[in-house]
């Protein structure tokens, strides 16, 4: 079979595989599931899943905040009438389980065998406005929960079906917004918050940003490729290869049933810029050989021979950088690492099948002969090489100073996260969440499981008294602005049985009185708020609440103090407790961030060490290769510390990814050096020749990588912004280290024919 026929067959086979991938990509869906960010396999997650099966999820709700007109309060009859109409509308929507609103809040009163629910507010009776507002401010659980402290806003809280997906969720939110407009509420007078809101907006933004960033990356990379190669095929062929790899990667992801989420949305952009490396190294080397007059077939064979080994190793190190993310217990990060790592290897496969096949079928391009025209790249790189070696003490000294400062600054990095970490502080969604933080109880849920000791029930008087003591601590010291528990139920029933008087809102003073109350609880057991706090057989209970999102560092400190309080003030022979809930699980991720990052970096370093030992069988050379790639990582860590950027889920992936990508050029450099040393006895001449041969590809690929990642800084997600900024900075510092530190370190440390490297000065002057 001729080479041309083999090329046609290769293209046909790859086209068929691409068609299959395209079929699966067409079925790919966007998704954002808050629950995916829980630590998979964690015992606390297993416990919370059992807990939520009994009591419901703590984040299946939407908060709707409504502001009164300027200069007016929420007790105006006209405002309350609209709120009541909106409450009734929401209650009738599909997927709405329960609605809590100031207009449907009632004060139950038991008379005889009947229960009468007396509303706190009477919009149709203006004369009762003063009495109603006074009662509201005296009643626990209303002000700060349903009505703002300054009486300028109210909240309607509607509980939704468990884990509602985006389509029905979007339909519900759209219906609510339409009704708000019909009721005369302007967009700036209402606020929506909750998991359902974040899920809807995040997915819409993911779709938009994926299109925008891919478009920007294609334009930027196309421009850089044109400036580099000045040929149409030097632009089109790399784009075809990389876009093909993206198609394959997304197709595989879809075939495995994985959706595009906040992390996997980075795969196309990440692969687009990272995947260019191999194609640029191949085309640069191919171009060079053609420019020296080599025949097309021979030039391609030389290129594949010289680039194949280095590209294979660099693809391996880059993919390992992504595969190490699979050590994370967070499913989106795991998926991102797995499929991006596979896609990197697919890019390598396409670079050495699709690209050579297309080059073989194209006519030999007409190129300028580099030597005849003084090859500008050789001139620039040659001068740079001489300057670097002439000022090697300055380069090393300056690098050491920067490194020391970076390490000192990096020590200031703290692990901290919040529920809406990925949104900037001025984002409209975050501002809406902030509205509830400022005016109401907050948006961070709190959950404490209550388990009576053997032989007791949740309605045991001692159990209730200990629960009440815990409630007091949580409200006064911990920071809960709203709390509900079985104590709330018993107090409410006692009040209802005593004419609804607020003075009767307290625990009974004796077991006999409690027994009478418990018998009457069955009158209310069908109310949703009762079912959500106590199991029907009273074998377990739930203490739930809300507070401002204080961040994981503050939350961890509060939880340490809470556990100490529980150990000192709770008798395990009476009541046992366990902290749980979605916020607690998200905070737990921080415990694994540092370990995952260290594990990932360690795997990367070990793999690079093995590769260098395989190539050079020299521990000194291993140090030489690691230093220029670790220095940029430490510098960026210093930048994070200096800028006050916290370590969190989104930023924890930066270092392993950046190291895996940055080491690519070093692998290409040393693999070319290895080949050059077989022909060039002088280490100095071999390093210089390698510098000139690999320098152009190193600079071009680094520019494309930095430029591609820089497009991510326009993201509305802080996590994506920092991935783009910090990885871009790492690669920028990395190319500087590659062109300055690396040749100095090789010449100083690597002992290869010492007699040849003692005479570099005459060559420097040439």
Content-based structural category: alpha+beta
- The total strand number stands at 10
Strand residue content: 5-15%
Number of helices: 26
The percent range for helix content is 55-70%
Form type: elongated
Strand order of the largest sheet: 2-5-1-6
Alpha-carbon distance between the two ends: 49 Å
Tell me about the largest β-sheet.
Answer: 4 strands, antiparallel
Q: Roughly how many Å is the radius of gyration?
A: 33 Å
What's the rounded overall pLDDT mean? 85
Show unreliable segments: 368-374, 754-766
Main location: membrane
Domain SSD: 239-361
Membrane topology: Multi-pass membrane protein
Keywords: Cell membrane, Membrane, Transmembrane, Transmembrane helix
Task: Tell me about this structure.
- By secondary structure, the protein is α+β, with helices and mostly antiparallel strands.
- It contains 26 helices and 10 strands.
- The chain has helices spanning 3-25, 43-55, 77-91, 129-138, 166-182, 195-229, 232-255, 266-274, 276-291, 296-323, 331-351, 354-361, 376-390, 392-410, 428-439, 461-478, 486-497, 511-521, 528-531, 552-569, 582-616, 619-643, 654-677, 683-710, 718-749, 761-765, and strands at residues 61-67, 96-100, 106-111, 114-119, 153-160, 190-194, 444-452, 482-484, 541-547, 575-580.
- A hairpin with a 2-residue loop joins strand 3 (106-111) and strand 4 (114-119).
- Helix 5 packs across helix 6 (195-229), helix 7 (232-255) runs antiparallel to helix 9 (276-291) and helix 21 (582-616) packs parallel to helix 23 (654-677).
- The longest helix has 35 residues, at 195-229.
- The two termini are 49 Å apart.
- It comes from Hymenobacter fastidiosus.
- It is found in: Cell membrane.
- It is a multi-pass membrane protein.
- The chain crosses the membrane at residues 210-229, 236-260, 266-287, 308-330, 336-362, 394-413, 593-616, 623-643, 649-670, 691-715, 721-750.
């Amino acid at each position: 079979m001729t080479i041309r026929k083999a090329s046609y067959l290769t293209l046909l086979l790859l086209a068929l595989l691409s068609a299959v991938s395209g079929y699966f990509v067409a079925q790919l869906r966007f998704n954002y599931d808050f629950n995916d960010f829980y630590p998979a396999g964690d015992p606390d997650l297993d416990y919370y899943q059992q807990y939520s099966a009994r009591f419901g999820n703590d984040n299946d709700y939407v908060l709707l905040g409504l502001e009164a007109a300027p200069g007016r309060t929420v007790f105006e009859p006209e405002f309350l009438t609209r709120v009541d109409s909106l409450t009734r509308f929401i209650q009738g929507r599909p997927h709405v389980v329960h609605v809590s609103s100031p207009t449907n809040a009632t004060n139950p009163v038991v008379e005889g065998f009947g229960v009468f629910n007396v509303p706190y507010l009477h919009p149709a009776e203006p004369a009762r406005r003063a009495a109603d507002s006074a009662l509201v401010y005296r009643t626990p659980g209303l002000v700060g929960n349903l009505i703002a402290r300054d009486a300028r806003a109210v909240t309607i809280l509607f509980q939704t079906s468990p884990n509602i997906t985006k389509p029905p969720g979007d339909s519900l939110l759209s219906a609510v917004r339409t009704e708000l407009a019909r009721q005369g509420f302007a967009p700036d007078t209402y606020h929506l918050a909750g998991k359902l809101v974040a899920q809807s907006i995040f997915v819409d933004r993911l779709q938009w940003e994926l299109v925008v960033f891919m478009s920007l990356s294609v334009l930027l990379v196309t421009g850089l490729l044109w400036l580099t190669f000045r040929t149409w095929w030097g632009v089109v062929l790399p784009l075809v290869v990389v876009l093909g790899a993206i198609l394959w990667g997304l197709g595989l992801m879809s075939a495995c049933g994985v959706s595009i989420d906040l992390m996997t949305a980075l795969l196309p952009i990440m692969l687009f810029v990272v995947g260019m490396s191999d194609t640029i190294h191949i085309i640069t080397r191919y171009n060079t050989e053609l420019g020296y007059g080599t025949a097309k077939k021979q030039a391609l064979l030389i290129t594949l021979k010289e680039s194949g080994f280095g590209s294979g190793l660099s693809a391996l190190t880059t993919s390992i950088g992504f595969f190490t993310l699979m050590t994370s217990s967070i499913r989106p990060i795991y998926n991102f690492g797995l499929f991006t790592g596979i896609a990197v290897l697919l890019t390598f496969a396409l670079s050495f099948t699709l690209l050579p096949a297309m080059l073989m079928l194209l006519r030999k391009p007409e190129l300028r002969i580099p030597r005849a025209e003084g090859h500008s790249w050789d001139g620039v790189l040659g001068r740079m090489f001489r300057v670097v070696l002439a000022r090697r003490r300055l380069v090393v000294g300056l690098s050491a100073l920067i490194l020391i400062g970076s390490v000192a600054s990096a020590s200031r990095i703290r692990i901290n996260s919040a529920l809406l970490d990925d949104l900037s502080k001025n984002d409209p969604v975050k501002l809406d969440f902030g509205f509830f933080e400022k005016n109401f109880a907050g948006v961070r849920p709190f959950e404490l499981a209550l388990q009576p000791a053997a032989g007791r029930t949740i309605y045991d008087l001692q159990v209730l008294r200990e629960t009440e003591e815990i409630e007091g601590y949580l409200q006064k010291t911990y920071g809960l602005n709203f709390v509900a528990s079985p104590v709330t139920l018993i107090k409410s029933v006692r009040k209802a049985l005593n004419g609804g008087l607020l003075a009767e809102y307290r625990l009974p003073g004796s077991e006999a009185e409690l027994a009478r109350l418990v018998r009457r609880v069955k009158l209310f057991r069908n109310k949703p708020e009762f079912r959500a706090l106590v199991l029907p057989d009273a074998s377990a209970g739930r203490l739930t609440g809300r507070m401002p999102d204080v961040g994981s560092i503050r939350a961890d400190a509060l939880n340490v103090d809470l556990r100490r309080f529980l150990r000192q003030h709770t008798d395990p022979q009476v009541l046992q407790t366990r902290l749980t809930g979605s916020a607690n699980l998200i905070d737990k991720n921080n415990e694994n961030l540092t370990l995952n990052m260290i594990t990932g970096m360690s795997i990367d370093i070990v793999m690079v060490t093995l590769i260098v030992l395989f190539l050079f069988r020299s521990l000194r050379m291993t140090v030489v290769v690691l230093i220029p790639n670790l220095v940029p990582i430490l510098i960026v860590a210093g930048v994070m510390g200096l800028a006050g950027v916290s370590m969190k889920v989104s930023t924890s992936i930066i270092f392993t990814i950046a190291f895996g990508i940055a080491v690519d050029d070093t692998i290409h450099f040393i693999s070319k050096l290895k080949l050059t040393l077989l022909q060039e006895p002088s280490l100095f001449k071999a390093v210089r020749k390698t510098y000139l041969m690999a320098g152009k590809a190193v600079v071009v690929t680094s520019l494309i990588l930095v430029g591609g990642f820089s497009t991510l800084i326009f993201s509305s997600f802080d996590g994506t912004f920092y991935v783009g900024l910090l990885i871009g900075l790492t690669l920028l510092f990395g190319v500087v280290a590659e062109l300055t530190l690396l040749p100095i370190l090789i010449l100083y440390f690597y002992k290869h024919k010492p007699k040849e490297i003692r005479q570099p000065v005459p060559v420097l002057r040439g």
